[in-house]
Amino acid sequence: MAAPGTPVTVTVTYSNEKHTVQIASHQEDSEPTLKDMALLIEQVTGVPVPFQKLICKGKSLKEMEQPLSALGVKNGCKVMLIGKRNSPEEEAELKKLKDFEKSVEQIANKLEEINKEFTGIQKGFLAKDLQAEALNHLDKRIKGAAEQFMKILEQIDAILDNVFLERRRKLTKNLPENFSDCKLKKKGLVKKVQAFLAQCDTVEGSIGQEMDKLQSKNLALAE
Predict the structure, then answer these.
(1) Among 28, 167, 190, 193, which is most exposed with the fewest C-beta within 10 angstroms?
(2) For the segment 122-165, what is each residue's pLDDT rounded down to a tens digit?
């Protein structure tokens, strides 16, 4: 068994390629796991983890969270990789999706801030004479966040479209039906953005109700 924190060096063979890789654990004072090795192999070969079939000493390696030592993978071992690389076109589309993912996270942080501020107003943490202005400001911000999510959703929806159009223009029959990694990531990101949009609608509706209540109270006091 490898000592905690000690890297394991193996030779990975893929087609006609050979790569010597040193696998370290992503967690301090832990042994490197199969997942650590698979992620490193993805970096050096371009074969995504979901498409990797790793074989060592005639056995298929599948348990991602297991330490390499528990799977019999030690220093100097040879690991055979079987799998499909992403095409340069798919890599380009995946990069776009990763960039969109970062943008979605940034807007989601804004949504969380709006939600916290609104909850604070509901709990009476803000003076009553300041609530109307604060709610109006939050209403504008939540609408802005929803608009940003919608814009990103449209851009995500266009992912792969350009690839299809370009191949059709060149009269290429092989459309990107194998872009499974890209399609899967796109589908997951679309669901995530749709969930955030639903949150925006809920928060916007709640802010609107709070504004109506405040307005009714002010009218009652004026009478």
Answers:
(1) 28
(2) 998 999 889 999 999 999 999 999 999 999 999 998 887 766 66
Whether the Cβ atoms of residue 153 and residue 187 lie closer than 8 Å to each other = no
Indicate if the alpha-carbon torsion angle 211, 212, 217, 221 is positive or negative: positive
Cβ distance 34 to 68 under 8 Å?
Answer: yes
Q: Which of 60, 50, 51 lies closest to 80 in space, CA to CA?
A: 60
Judging by beta carbons within 10 Å of its beta carbon (0-12, 13-18, 19+), is residue 183 exposed, middle or buried? middle
Pairing of the two strands 8-14 and 78-82: parallel
Order across the sheet with 17-23: list the strands. Answer: 17-23, 8-14, 78-82, 53-56, 59-61
Provide the whole-model pTM.
0.63
pLDDT in tens, 77-124: 999 999 888 777 777 888 899 999 999 999 999 999 999 999 999 998
The per-residue pLDDT for range 187-197, each reduced to its tens digit, is 999 999 999 99
**Residue 73 CB partners (closer than 8 Å, separation 6+):** 8, 10, 34, 37, 56, 61, 79
